[in-house]
Design goal:
By secondary structure, the protein is an alpha+beta fold. It is 28% helix and 25% strand. The strands form 6 sheets. It has a 7-stranded antiparallel beta sheet with strand order 20-19-16-17-18-15-21. Helix 1 runs parallel beside helix 5, helix 1 runs parallel beside helix 12 and helix 9 crosses helix 10. It starts with 17 loop residues before the first strand and ends with a helix. Bound molecules: dihydroflavine-adenine dinucleotide.
Length: 414
Amino acid sequence: GRGLAEPRRDCSSWDPSLRRDDELTTLYDAIVLGAGGAGLMCAATAGQRERRVLLIDHADQPGKKILISGGGRCNFTNIHTAPDRYLSANPHFAKSALSRYTARDFIDLVDRHGIAWHEKTLGQLFCDGSARQIVAMLMEECAKGAARVSLGKPVRDVEHADGQFRVRYGELTASAPALVIATGGPSIPKMGATGFAYDLARKFGLKVVEPRPALVPLTLGGDEVLFRELSGVATEVVARAGKAAFREAALFTHKGLSGPAILQVSSYWRHGEPVGIDFLPASGRHWLLDAKRERPRTHFHTLLGERLPGRLAEALTKRLGLWGELANMPDRKLEEAERRLADWQFSPNGTEGFAKAEVTAGGISTDGLSSRTMEAKRVPGLYAIGEGVDVTGWLGGYNFQWAWASGWAAGQAL
Ligand code: FDA
């Protein structure tokens, strides 16, 4: 009968609801836009503090990036979390939130939910089972705080008047004195990522630091396309861009360079700058001259092949033009080869862009935000958290830790 045709309301238990403009508007204490890691943490935290929270996402399920993260096991934090492992126009901004909600705090939460985890490498913690456990845990925490979660409805419009934020989403309208922007950055648009956070922030007069792809593979052009022949070859290197240096694996791809060392430096790399690669970080000084003295009959590419994958040794030998036995090579040529191998200069012509970037660097400027609460200084009640803010972590669980910490900070303040 008619009952089935009644308009859907996603909040019927909380009165008062009021009619405005002939539209049913549901009142909340806070509306959180974006049910990713940051938004879920924020909604759970505020909900458990007795705040009436509405969490809205246009996706049909929460935490989609959590689900695909860490190869499906979610690298949910890093035990070496520290502010200097984050990039931001204001390197001090992340300190407060990171110190108030730490990796230990998140591990305790994971433990309380009985989720098994392990350290993989470099302090990176992963679920033994599945990233689904992390999403389920955060949804349970939201339920514990009685936060309403609305999925599959796009946000159509946000208005601000008389100290209330009024959000139209799908065919519904909600209103609250606090609005949290937690819609993330534009990396991986095919998963529903958008620049919505920036549009909204600008609408409220917040500045946006130019967003750029980070933790992203670099592309090679010109003469360096020759390295594409090495697609699939990986080796441990030290990669450098600007002042940053990372000792991890690098991988040649059919477009250029990838692997953890490259993803890490990509966040620091700027167009036009070189990326320096030490192909032999474990080799001591003068190792080539020592080898020449000890094994003069050895061919250069054989020696290199003992320390590097064969195809890479061959390609580097070709470019150095050092064919033949070490004995026939002048010392200064070997010294020069050693220098080049320790700081091979690549000139990337770009990155693989937002389509392949694990995160977005830049974003909503921290200038306009309180580092303690994430609230906009000039717009009381407006908050921004997570990846949409100009705070970007290293590879290895740091970005989720920022999502948890910033979400918690705002959740405590709402
Ligand atoms: P997030 O992007 O997670 O959430 C934003 C939410 O807002 C989404 O649910 C989206 O649907 C919604 N939304 C967007 N626009 C909207 C709109 N207009 N209206 C309504 N809703 C909207 N980090 C890490 O620490 N460890 C790891 O293992 C990985 N692994 C990893 C793998 C891959 C493939 C990627 C792409 C990224 C990672 N990351 C990671 C990075 C990590 O996923 C990222 O930093 C966090 O998910 C950011 O959390 P947020 O909640 O800020 O945004």
